[in-house]
Task: inverse folding
């Protein structure tokens, strides 16, 4: 995540979220592709669940105490190697719900990003 200008940070956060949505899309697609594969276990990205739990508990107080640890404040580092968790057999309905949710969220973030750039363009052109 960029540490510079607030506009850069907002765009960077949106980019990170879009990247996470793209990864989620790949995981769901793999689950759906393997729905009839014997002994295949559905997978999920654990990053999102862990982040939600942390935000709900206000527990974002992780500290890097060793060079071998991931930097808990570096979204890029976490996104590079997202942790996958197995969630059991593939449930078609659950995968379709996740796919729809992910798609709507992706489109929402794209819309917000387009509005952000539109506002910047208006400001640069002096409101014309």
Result:
């Amino acid at each position: 995540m960029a540490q510079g200008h607030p506009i850069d940070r907002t765009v960077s956060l949106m980019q990170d979220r879009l990247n996470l949505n793209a990864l989620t899309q790949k995981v769901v697609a793999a689950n759906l592709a393997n729905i009839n594969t014997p002994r295949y276990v559905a997978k999920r990205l654990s990053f999102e669940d862990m982040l939600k739990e942390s935000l709900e508990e206000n527990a974002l107080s992780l500290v890097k105490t060793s060079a071998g640890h991931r930097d808990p404040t570096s979204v890029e580092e976490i996104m590079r190697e997202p942790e996958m968790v197995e969630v059991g057999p593939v449930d078609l309905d659950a995968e379709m719900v996740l796919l729809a949710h992910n798609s709507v969220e992706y489109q929402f973030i794209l819309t917000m990003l387009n509005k952000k750039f539109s506002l910047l363009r208006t400001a640069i052109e002096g409101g014309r």
User: Anything to note?
Assistant: The chain is about 60% helix and 5% strand. The mean pLDDT is 82.
